[in-house]
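Render Mitogen-activated protein kinase in 3D.
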Amino acid sequence: MAAVGGPTRQARGVSMSVSMSLVQGGAAGAAGPQGAILAAAAPYYQPPAVPQDVQPDRPIGYGAFGVVWAVTDPRDGRRVALKKLPNVFQSLVSSKRVFRELKMLCFFKHDNVLSALDILQPPHLDFFQEIYVITELLQSDLHKIIVSPQHLSADHIKVFLYQILRGLKYLHSARILHRDIKPGNLLVNSNCVLKICDFGLARVEEPDQSKHMTQEVVTQYYRAPEILMGARHYSAAVDVWSVGCIFGELLGRRILFQAQSPVQQLELITELLGTPTLEDMRHACEGARTHMLRRAPKPPSLSALYTLSTHATHEAVHLLCQMLVFDPDKRISVIDALAHPYVDEGRLRYHSCMCKCCYTPSAGMRQYAAEFEPSAPQPFDDLWERKLTSVQQVKEEMHKFIAEQLQTNRVPLCINPQSAAFKSFASSTVAHPSELPPSPHQWE
């Protein structure tokens, strides 16, 4: 962990250093310094036996507003993910967005949604500039699996799709729109358990349709047509469209709509779905509607979905066609998608041997959970956002929130910025240029 450590300025407990084996820029912390650190912390915890082939800390991903490293927690030797949220307090909008993501990660309690395991202890408020969150580490993500030569059976596709929908049902029941569902944000471990991650663009749904929502969301290939056409307001249906794109990508092992620009993205969509009616475009901005009406009408060619692969059965294509609907009001909901017959086998496989909600006693039949797809116990509360009107207010409230989360019996961790490993971690960039949001003026 990029140097998690050092005695804290705050007197709430003892922290320690996580010395990182650098994968870039030279040698890592040697056994000597690490041994001294562990020895100093010995009265407070028992360090695990460190295997000789311990994996080095390394960057594993870049999200919308942060970088993620695979690191080792010194308290138990467990490999975890460390997400850095840098430059938090540059503006009121960005600081509230980071605070929202942090609160969401602490709110989530679902097997198919990534949540915070711990937050690193922040420095004194005067030096508080960035946040480090520890989450579970999964070995891969769906993008890496799709582009790999690994065989994907129909059962793989069904169990992946089921878990995506299961996690998304939980998010939507909490009134949360993810707004960046894509294969790279779907983490997968070695036994095919999947978790939705990266909530840097997530927000609570806006019930007032007169209020404008940002169009600078969702990686282009998975962006719903209403956003591509400049809709000022949208719903949880944007996430369902993204899932439909991923479902098609799982079937065909290639990106379903891969365009060079948002306008070309819309062209590819209409080649498959046909030219939308004026009713279908009622959420679009005037410029987008004019653009569509100027072009020669195209008939739908949904039968092309059967050519994706041999796994594109009638049931699969039927569900996919209900997800890839131009009009968001006619698009299938997550709850209805979970009720589709195509998902039944994925549900059966997941709850037979993969989930944590069901169990098999040492002698006897498997005991199944009362509810296979639980909803959130209550909506995610975002009322606090309206009360924060300055960056300093957000900073103070976030610092207080983290302190409340740290009231546990575990030894707290904090960053040691003097570590050589931290320099590599700190220099990591955030988002890849291809993932930056589109210009909101594409139809002008």
